[in-house]
């Protein structure tokens, strides 16, 4: 069964808005950590990513700029 063209067009229209949301969340480390704190307790993968994120934030205080981006869907 082919994917409906109308759904594809809708996804293409929404993609820039979603991308902007993801970018803004990624730029707010406290919001990101707070929002995912319950997930961190239940999911080992998310827990490890947030631990890495925290360590990178500490390093970033000493360095000029560090960017870490991981997109996980599933």
TrEMBL record:
Entry-linked Pfam families: GSH_synth_ATP (PF03917)
GO cellular component: cytosol
Recorded GO MF terms: ATP binding; glutathione binding; glutathione synthase activity
Protein name: Uncharacterized protein
Annotated organism of origin: Prunus yedoensis var. nudiflora
């Amino acid at each position: 069964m082919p994917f409906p063209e109308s759904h594809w067009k809708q996804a293409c229209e929404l993609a820039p808005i979603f991308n902007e949301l993801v970018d803004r969340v990624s730029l707010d480390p406290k919001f990101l950590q707070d929002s995912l704190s319950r997930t961190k307790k239940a999911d080992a993968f998310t827990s490890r990513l947030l631990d890495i994120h925290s360590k990178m934030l500490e390093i970033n205080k000493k360095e000029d700029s560090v960017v870490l981006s991981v997109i996980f869907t599933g």
